[in-house]
Write a structure and sequence with these properties.
The protein is an alpha/beta fold. The protein folds into 3 domains: 67 residues, Orthogonal Bundle (Arc Repressor Mutant, subunit A); 131 residues, ATPase, nucleotide binding domain (Nucleotidyltransferase, domain 5); 157 residues, Nucleotidyltransferase, domain 5, CATH 3.30.420. Helices cover 41% and strands 17% of the residues. The protein contains 13 helices and 12 strands. It has a 5-stranded mixed β-sheet, sandwiched between helices. A hairpin with a 2-residue loop joins strand 9 and strand 10. Helix 6 packs across helix 13. The radius of gyration is 23 Å and the shape is globular. The two termini are 24 Å apart. Bound molecules: zinc ion (ZN). Zinc ion binds next to loops.
């Protein structure tokens, strides 16, 4: 069960085709790869022998192979995920298809920096491996999520106004020294986007997921590919300007959508109505009892958000715009405000086929997305052999 086994490129291709966890027949895989049925069958047999693929064959008489279903062996190795938000962190041990074997979520201030986060993670990991009943030797990949853009090439946090103390830190290297396996560092909104797409929209090629919590960030699928951009800034919509706003942002500009569409933005909007709240729990309590001022504040934040999203629609023409994050999934008011604004600002052709939705499972989506990246990272690192090519 060693996670690392020499694989031929053709074997990796089949594993990548099974990486979404959906069972597939030989015919499905013949279609995906363009190979002959015999080639697919031979590669599948090898992968079953190597413990990478599980076959669910229906026994039947007669000649020829039965119409079996094949899935990636999710139990072959585990992925450890550490997903940090600004004020909360979730850790999980998952199988290769992102099913959580053990997890924990706690309040944690991202201001403790990489060293503090590392120390905390080391302690949590011991408990979670014990709870998951998996030896740490089964670990094949670690994925770290951060509420910061991650440089496309160096995989280090960038964005000086977001996470002081983390900028440029070799988070992957530090976690790698502790866990002894390669580490993939990713922006948290992108992790949620990957996980939300796998769960809710596996066949959608063009999708925007927007995380709204302490901050705001988006993940963008265009043509079925997650967009990172040259620096990793694709989807960093927080500092796009709202035309009607002159409110100052910590970045030095005025009118950034972040200062309106975030926990802090809602706290400020409520304060203008004479309501003093201090955190998301207070906002949630007001929203859940239908407080009129809170409803109004969330609707207006949604309208501001829609103004920005209308521009994204014109650039990307997505099929789905999904809201998530602790604020993004708090009732329907933010979503309703966004829709209102979208229909006012975007061309009707762009909104006619658009599906807008909000999700409450963003933390689990981040874990699923991280596990998916972990699997992709494992497959990218499995050394290729020779002589088994299709
Ligand atoms: Zn700003």
């Amino acid at each position: 069960m060693a996670p690392h086994t020499t694989l031929a490129p053709a074997q990796k291709t089949l594993l990548e085709a099974l990486a979404d966890g959906r069972p597939r027949t030989r015919s499905d895989l013949t279609e995906v790869t363009g190979w002959t049925r015999n080639t697919v069958a031979a590669r599948l047999d090898e992968l079953i022998h190597l413990d990478w693929v599980v076959a669910n064959e229906e026994p039947r008489g007669g000649r020829g192979r039965p119409p079996g279903l094949f899935t990636l062996n999710a139990d072959r190795a585990v992925v450890f995920v550490a997903s940090f938000g600004h004020t909360r962190a979730t850790w999980a041990v998952t199988d290769l298809l992102g099913r959580t074997l053990a997890s924990r979520t706690e309040r944690l201030d991202i201001g403790i920096g990489p060293e503090g986060a590392m120390t905390k993670t080391r302690d949590v990991a011991k408990d979670l491996f014990a709870a998951a009943k998996r030896p740490s030797s089964a670990l094949a990949s670690v994925v770290v999520g951060l509420p910061s853009p991650i440089h496309t090439v160096t995989r280090r946090p960038i964005h000086p106004w977001a996470l002081p103390g983390w900028i440029g830190a070799d988070v992957g290297g530090a976690f790698g020294r502790v866990f002894g396996v390669p580490v993939w560092v990713e922006n948290d909104a992108k992790l949620m986007t990957i996980g939300a797409r796998i769960r809710h929209f596996p066949d959608v090629q063009d999708l925007i997921f927007i995380k709204v919590s302490s901050g705001i960030g988006a993940g963008i699928y265009s043509g079925g590919v997650l967009q990172r951009g040259v620096l990793g800034m694709a989807g960093e919509i927080g500092h796009l300007r709202i035309a009607a706003s002159d409110k100052r942002c910590a970045c030095g500009n005025v009118g950034c959508v972040l200062v309106h569409v975030s926990t802090g933005g809602i706290i400020d909007a409520l304060a203008e109505s004479g309501i003093q709240v201090s955190d998301l729990d207070d906002i949630a309590a007001l929203a859940n009892r239908g407080d009129a001022d809170c409803t109004r504040a969330l609707r207006q934040a949604g309208r501001y958000l829609g103004e920005i999203v209308a521009t994204l629609l014109a650039s990307l023409n997505p099929e789905v715009v999904a809201l998530g994050g602790t604020l993004g999934s708090l009732g329907d008011n933010l979503l309703a405000g966004m829709r209102e604004s979208l229909y006012a600002h975007a061309h009707p052709t762009l909104t006619s086929s658009l599906h807008t939705v909000s999700f409450g499972d963003h933390e689990m989506a981040a874990i699923r997305g991280a596990a998916h990246l972990g699997l992709a990272d494992i497959l990218s690192r499995v050394p290729s052999g020779t002589g088994l090519d299709a």
